[in-house]
Amino acid sequence: MTTTAPVVHLRGGGTSVVVTTSGGRLPRVLHWGPDLGDLTDDDLAAMETTASPAIGDSAVTYPQPVPVVAQLSEGWLGRPGIVGDRAGAHWAPRFEIDDVVVERATDAERVRVTSSDAAYALSLGVEIELLASGLVRVRAEVGNTGDSPYEVRSLDLGLPVPATAGELCDLTGRWALERVPQRRPFDVGSWVRESRGGKPGLEHAFMMLAGEPGFANRSGRVWGVHLGWSGNHALVAERTPAGVRRLSGGELPWPGELVLGPGETSTTPWLYGSWGEGLDDLSHRVHRWLRSRPAHPRTPRPVVVNTWEAVYFQHDLATLERLAEAGAAIGAERFVLDDGWFTGRRDDTTSLGDWTVDATVWPDGIDALADRVRELGMDFGIWFEPEMVNLDSDLAREHPEWVFDAGHGPGMPSRHQHVLDLAHPGAYRHVRDAMIEVVERLDVAYVKWDHNRYLLDAGHSPSGRAGVRAQTLAAYALMAELKELRPGLEIESCASGGGRVDLGVLQLTDRVWPSDCNDPHDRLEIQRWTSLLVPPELQGTHVGARDSHTTHRVHPLDFRAQVAMWGHLGVEVNLLEASEDELDEIRAWVGLHRSFRALLHSGDVVHADASDPALRLEGVVSADQEEALFQLSVVDRPATWPPGRVTLPGLAPERRYRVRVVDPVGRGATGVLPPWNAIAEGVVLPGTVLSEVGIEAPSLDPDRAVLWHVAAV
User: What global pTM score does this model have?
Assistant: First the structure.
């Protein structure tokens, strides 16, 4: 409905968003956070009045509520909403509202605002949507209503946070160690995290968080934003001398990438915002929305055997058939043939882009392996890296014009790779047709989609014009087209590990690979911080080798399996080299995961705030709070010992629960265990005791863990 009320109250999922459009100005958010209950129009009008500061000689120096799309022409001297121009002019737009429409449905409540700048011949639509989970998201559409081109250089969207948000947290990282948190005070100025490599990157900020100083998993109010976009972008925390605190984000197009011709429009990616009483609460709003989507995986996530760490490039039908048979024997449900299956691909220096089955390795094709995998009761998956090319490949030799070139040749290699320009129609058709031929011939159920090189110098050939943005859109289009042609096909987003994990690519994929590191010591933290946005069923978590291939740490099988339990389970151990005892143990852990899979992939993810940094306690609690699974891990040697009691978060206070140790192989954790751990039937305690008083933790050795099953009685 079109509304005449200038202040609108959106409610959902325990969240309120109060938006004003008074004075014909672009929408400003007066409140984003806890549900305010039923508010009358008079309440909302009074709320706006009390949110307006006294203004002295200049509005610039006073804390005005800042629009979602901030404007220099209204006195905003911070990061601008729109940066653009028309041949050097029309660079400071001032939009005035034409219409406001409020929509209320069971899945979301939203405000749609249309506005224009007649002098600049521009239009701007702003959409603010509060989803049923309590997650808010905003986007904008800019249009050129003039008769000459208008170039958009950036378009940032922002949400305010209150003065109590005194601390920032974002993430950094590198290959095989993604999503490492870093904190700092929310000082005056801007903290800007940019991704300019054509994908979010291994060092991706992931989410820009601002909260009460010391905010933790279960305490301290916190707000965060994330941009659902897999290309170049920025996330920003900004505090002005006038007292405004704001989180924002937007695309970062290169020159010439976003030029609107007469009558053309462009829509930004969604900027997602979540808040919570602690990080777990913030994450729950994202997880519940992801799980509510019609395209979210509904079937049990099949246990995977991936060939990479087992055989790397050494493909051989007999060996791989035996590996598939071993995988089926330990309870796997999906077999994924990784890199090395296509023509000439014996290492990573050659043949990328030549997506035809290597007849020297597979004289009769891969069909026999795929058929054998299905005979064993598993579905068949395969690896592609569609956006990349080796210069030593038939594709690059035949079509050098399809390789990105910004004017200095194809540029420096990275992992011996360069980037294939998928925005070139011929290159797109070539890759699409090659993928479809393989996927259809082998009845592929799952594509592991890799992306190993940053787009350092991605220029269209022969013009040299920037093509990073178009590449991102082409990758999205290719994923969507494959899924449309092959209903039920699942895609994993892998990019040197966790280099492309975002809510944009997750609209087209069914799984992300958080890291190439399978070392459980590091994976524990990588998975935890990936879960800020991504629930367990969308995270690939594999049991790797005893001697980690990335860190060379050595870990027993039970710890590797315990950490891998908490996601979409897979196995990369070379099952052909495992002893019978090891195979039995892997089979037991796979069986345990499958028995708890429904809980792990539907419940609320929780993390305790342990008093000692050497301890990690995480769990998943069912939505009805009837059941939970917890894992206590010791990751270092604590200064004080024994660890004392740990609390189990997320349980219903009024219920009574039976807590028992879960150990599928009966070996027992190494360390000194408290007496209650030895009681086979467990102990029964009220939820209040478990969450407030806790239970005595075992004194485990470093890099060891214990699992506890909790069930209402």
Answer: 0.97
